[in-house]
Amino acid sequence: MSRAPEQVQDPLRWCAALALAFWLACLPHLTAVPHAYFDEVHYLPAARELLALDEFTNREHPLLGKELIALGIALFGDNPVGWRLLPTLLGTLALFGAMRALWFASESRFATLAYGVLLATGFHLFVHARIAMLDIFYLGFLALAAWQFAAAIRQPEQGRWRLALTGVALGLAMGAKWNALVVAMLPGLTFLVARALAGRRRLLMSRRGAPVPGTTLLEATLWLGVVPLAVYAATYLPGFLFRLHPITEGLVFHHQFMLSQQEQVLKPHPYQSTWEQWVLNARSIWYLYEPVEGVQRGIMLIGNPLTMLLGLPALAWCAWHGLVRRYWAALGVALIYAVSLGFWVIASKPVQFYYHYALPSMALLAALALACDALWRNGWHKSALAPVVGSVLVFGWFYPIISGAPLVGPDSFAVWTWMEAWR
Q: Using CA atoms, how far apart are residues 148 and 142, in angstroms rounded to an integer?
């Protein structure tokens, strides 16, 4: 008698363990800088104004990220713990959600766990999980959306509530930062294209066919189109309640104002960079480098020098196998990278910064995990593990300069600035 095919065991507990280890790694030196640093100087005052509903400041950005920073202050106090503890939790959600998304997309234990390690040690997520900026919030909610959407495709019997959660998470991601906008459109477009290619006669009402059998295109439009917009709009409710400069002329006018603020010509900034530099990991940002209460500390944002470059051929591999061999997980990863980076290639915002590469870098590391998984499945175990182990070692070497740990002295940065453009 033929044996039943073996079912790959879900690495849920390992995903949870990796997420917990990442959160614990975020805690040392989290409060070592007792004052606002880098863009915290913009978002912390805006969060305080939200708590008081006094003056509506920092009007060029959506409100949800600042609302969550305000929540942290309300829960834990107006201090470094209140500012930065909630971002560590959203960073942990981003890591866990991203791993779960890749598991449901690939059903590969090795790819899932390798991705968790690569993402946790890829620098971008770690640095942004320890600072009160908006980026970690939209990354966390996008990872949650990707997890639920991939799970809805893999388990269509749970499709309705998972698509509903996808829509809510997409709305929250857009409400945290506009960087999420173009990627937030992908689930709905994916559903539309997949259902159209299935050749259903009743395109809007048919329940058959990919990507989620049992769900009509009309219902998917509700969950992936209407719900995200409604949730996004709801995040602006406090904006109508400020004492000074509230939203008075409606959300459409307010968004026109926000867009004009985003597109205004700014003075050149010493840390500005271009997308080509992001791809090559050729430009850093110093979030902090100064004596703090008599101790030299530094926080440099740069991608992991090993995996940011190894991920580029992995992306090409994913695009090829996705298009030619219909490896949908690989195609999805390549598409997310292309869309999230392509937005900044054509964006009219004149001054751009390396932290905009945080989302593309997550897709890049997923591509590297899938490429390593292909090596693993073909028996090249040492080659598959080398980038993962190497990423951990490089992360350990750079940990002092990305975590705000005590440094020897003012010239300590030279140990890690391997390129002149990193200084």
A: 10
Q: What backbone phi and psi angles, to 5 degrees, belong to 221?
A: -60, -35
Task: Quickly state the pLDDT bin for 5 (edges 50, 70, 90).
Answer: low
Cα dist from 98 to 310, 369, 378, 403, 407, whole Å: 19, 12, 25, 22, 33
Among residues 104, 131, 132, which one has the least CA distance to residue 11? Answer: 104
In degrees and rounded to multiples of 5, residue 57 shows phi and psi of: -115, 175
Q: Which two tokens stand for residue 172?
A: 């929250």
Look at residue 280 and give its three-state secondary structure: coil
Handedness of CA 389, 273, 355, 188 (dihedral sign): negative
CA separation for the pair 192, 198 (Å, rounded): 10
What average pLDDT does the segment 271-292 reach? 93
Q: What is the rounded CA–CA span in Å between residue 221 and residue 204?
A: 9
- Note the pLDDT tens digit of each residue in 112-133: 999 999 999 999 999 999 999 9
Please report which residue ranges of 53-134 form alpha helices under DSSP H: 64-76, 80-106, 109-120, 124-128
Token pair listed for 336: 């997310």
Q: What is the residue-averaged pLDDT of the chain?
A: 94
d(CA 25, CA 403): 9
Residue 351 — pLDDT band, cuts 50, 70, 90? Answer: confident
Contact 40, 140 (CB under 8 A): no
Q: What are phi and psi of 216, to 5 degrees?
A: -80, 160
CA dist 281 and 413 (Å) reads: 17
Among 286, 269, 270, 304, residue whose Cα is nearest residue 422: 286
Q: What angle do CA 96, 231, 262 make, to 5 degrees?
A: 90
Measured between its terminal Cα atoms, the distance across the chain in Å is: 66
Residues 58, 56: Cα–Cα separation, whole Å = 7
- The span from the CA of 303 to the CA of 291, in Å, is 24
Sign of CA dihedral 148, 150, 153, 154: negative
Using CA atoms, how far apart are residues 212 and 387, in angstroms rounded to an integer? 34
pTM of the predicted structure, to 2 decimals: 0.95
Counting beta carbons within 10 angstroms of the beta carbon of residue 241, is it exposed (0 to 12), middle (13 to 18) or buried (19 or more)? exposed
